[in-house]
Design brief:
Distance between the termini: 35 Å
């Protein structure tokens, strides 16, 4: 078979020219009884000794499951099947104290492990392992404190669950834009939200972390209590321990307006023109969108997701888009959760996948034309490799999006003076034999779009890639820039035995 690099290089020349599962507790049983039931009958089944040690050392409310147990399969599964690995066991800790015990055991035995919040990941091994898989699903708290206007959120939840719990209080947090996204990984990587133009990245709104350090200490981390660790947790991923609870600022939330419009190939030029105008001219922090160049019914098209933080947008906000003929349209005044769930992001659940991203200063006509060209080209060349979906996501945030935090307040972004907007691409396919092909396509396609930005004079040569979009082999310097050395020093101090190095992810 033609190697991925050679294949993609050859096509590049042409291109240049051209659920989460439902509640899985055993019906009618308590957590203790459930653990007892799943243990029954295991006498003749191999159980990894480290898993057995964890089972004996943790409290009765913490459950350990093995291959063949239904909860095990649900624990290790991911939104992208390419992120799933067969662990020796899965563990559902119930308390921070049990998380500390588990970290102590895997650290002492030097056992590879993973920590999974929502599992909405594509990078292989980042929240999966062949060792001990820690599922945070039992950390499911949502507690709104009206006196402090904050919300405590467990690290095992999806944003859908958080929004649903907060709706009766008419408040919200700065969280994920698509259904099925977990709180933990999203927040630890930075977090772009429908509310980012108004309030900043998700990490800009975190006021407190409950953290289990690799040493086993359970600490509450705030800006006042430990400013260096607070800085590191804001975008530094899973390098400093396991977060069991986040406390976010809360903001008033009423009805919103928006939804999804699909456009066919003949209308791509009109959508592209409207996108360029919105990116250059919009100043309303309540207005946001994702313009996804994709494939619809086998042909290039655009999936446009519109958002306005209010029951209706002012005249002129989205008019350039609303006059374009469309294939389908689902736009209305609705509650925040319904808007988030209007996106068909779960259509590729269970497929293999890869994300990658680059920073863009401005979505110019030249950049948008390059993105449209990449979509058209790859949509006609990847199906032979079991490719089923292509997604080039344009996200025209306001240039002030980083101004909600001061320079040096977070690991990501390294610079808050550069108004770099995120851009992502996503491919889905079914045959694992072609993993390397899609990984290489993602690298080269992102590089070509970045080259167009650089040729236009955009200051993105050293701009940070959003960690939650970056492909697995992105150097950490590409994520954190000048923050890399301070982060490495912090990591060495917090984790002297490099316990978190036993887990996947971008390692400092």
């Amino acid at each position: 078979m033609l190697s991925a690099t050679l294949f993609v290089s050859a096509l590049a020349l042409s291109a240049a020219a051209y659920p989460r599962p439902a509640n899985d507790n055993l019906v009618g049983t308590s957590t203790n009884a459930q653990a007892l039931l799943v243990n029954t009958g295991r006498a003749f089944r191999f159980r990894d000794p480290v898993c057995v040690q964890i089972e004996k050392a943790t409290s009765p409310l913490t459950a350990v499951f093995y291959p063949g147990d239904r909860p095990y399969e649900q624990d290790i599964s991911h939104w992208a099947s390419s992120s799933t690995q067969r662990a020796q066991c899965s563990v559902r800790p119930d308390t921070a104290e049990d998380v500390a015990i588990i970290l102590g055991i895997v650290g002492t035995t030097r056992t590879p492990f993973a920590v999974k919040g929502g599992g909405h990941a594509t990078n292989p091994g980042f929240s999966s392992t062949t060792g001990v898989h820690i599922s945070m699903v039992q950390f499911a708290e949502v507690t709104y404190d009206p006196s402090s206007q904050t919300v405590a959120v467990g690290s095992g939840l999806l944003w859908d669950e958080v929004y649903a719990a907060l709706a009766p209080y008419d408040v919200n947090v700065v969280g994920g834009r698509m259904t099925g996204v977990g709180v933990a990984g999203f927040t630890l990587g930075g977090g772009y939200s429908w509310l980012t133009n108004q309030h900043g990245l998700t990490i800009d709104t975190v006021v407190e972390y409950e953290l289990v350090k690799p040493t086993g200490d359970i600490v509450t981390v705030t800006k006042a209590s430990d400013p260096e660790l607070f800085f590191g947790l804001k975008g530094g991923m899973n390098n400093f321990g396991i977060v069991t609870r986040f406390t976010f600022k809360a903001f008033p939330q009423g009805q919103v307006w928006g939804g999804v419009i699909l456009f066919n190939a003949q209308d791509i030029p009109a959508v592209t023109k409207a996108t360029g105008a919105f990116s250059a001219l919009s100043t309303d922090p309540k207005a946001a969108m994702i313009v996804t160049y994709t494939v619809i019914a086998g042909e290039p098209g655009v999936e446009l997701t519109l958002f306005y933080d209010g029951p209706s947008p002012p005249a002129g906000t989205f008019d350039d888009f609303l006059v374009i003929p469309y294939a389908t349209k689902d736009v209305s005044t609705r509650d925040f959760l319904t808007l988030v769930q209007s996106s068909p992001s779960d259509d590729t659940y269970g497929m293999r996948g890869v994300f990658h991203g680059i920073p863009i200063t401005q979505y110019t006509p030249g950049i948008l034309a390059a993105i449209a060209n990449e979509t058209t080209f790859w949509s006609s060349h990847l199906s032979v490799f079991s490719g089923s979906y292509i997604d080039y996501g344009v996200q025209p945030f306001l240039p002030t999006l980083f101004s909600h935090g001061v320079q040096g307040s977070s690991a990501y972004p390294a610079s808050r003076t550069k108004s770099a907007r995120p851009f992502h691409l996503y491919f889905a396919w079914s045959d694992e034999r072609f993993d390397a092909v899609f990984h290489e396509v993602a690298r080269q396609s992102a590089a070509r779009i970045k080259a167009v930005a650089l040729a236009e004079g955009q200051d993105v040569a050293d701009a940070a890639i959003y960690p939650n979009y970056a492909i697995f082999d992105t150097p950490v310097e590409g994520l954190y820039g000048d923050n890399v050395e301070p982060l490495r020093a912090l990591k060495a101090a917090v984790d002297p035995m490099n316990v978190m190095g036993l887990a996947g992810g971008f390692k400092l």
